[in-house]
Amino acid sequence: MALRNIVLAGDDILRKRCREVAEIDDRVRMILDDMIETMRSQNGVGIAAPQVGILRRMFVVENENGEVIEAINPRIIESSGSQTGEEGCLSFPGYVGSVERPEYIKVEAFDRHGKTMVHEGTELMAVALSHEMDHLEGILYTDKATGIHEAEAAPAEDDQAANGAEQ
Ligand code: CO
Q: Is 120 a catalytic residue?
């Protein structure tokens, strides 16, 4: 595994629509491993492939229990309600803003073995899944956010699931 450089805001890569993953092979699995390592190194809650410079439809999200969801060619199959809270993004380090997201979201995706998986999320997980799905369309949270401001002092390491966690 290796850390990858995170693409920062202002780079056109983050604005492109990602293409489907054509084949789930060792290269894809290696990229997923690197994305997980890179996300954890920054205490992030999620990261999408374009944030490491790869314009393919995949992301990873880590839940409160430290379990990682890997989503390849994900699609939203259900979404309902709304919640508004502060969130950040690893591509905009140090800032957060308030965004309206679904309260509940259900995503269908392939895992690293090509198996179809369904992932449901509420609260922070719904925010994370919605945020990462947006990345695959070239949409950034700053497009939707109000009141973007500098985050408080760096959170403690065990605080990564708090609102405002970077994704
Ligand atoms: Co993000």
A: no
Q: Is the pLDDT of residue 13 over 50?
A: yes
Can you tell me the distance from the alpha carbon of 57 to that of 59, in angstroms, rounded to the nearest whole number? 7
User: Can you tell me the distance from the alpha carbon of 145 to that of 84, in angstroms, rounded to the nearest whole number?
Assistant: 10
* 91-143 residue pLDDT tens: 999 999 999 999 999 999 999 999 999 999 999 999 999 999 999 999 999 99
Report which of 98, 95, 101, 106 is spatially closest to residue 146, judged by C-alpha positions. Answer: 98
Among 78, 50, 43, 60, residue whose Cα is nearest residue 161: 43
CA of 113 to the centre of ligand 1 (A): 25
Question: Ligand 1 centroid vs 8 CA: distance in angstroms?
Answer: 10
pLDDT of residue 72: 98
Residue 87 contacts residue 164 (beta carbons within 8 Å):
yes
- 25 contacts: CB under 8 Å, gap ≥ 6: none
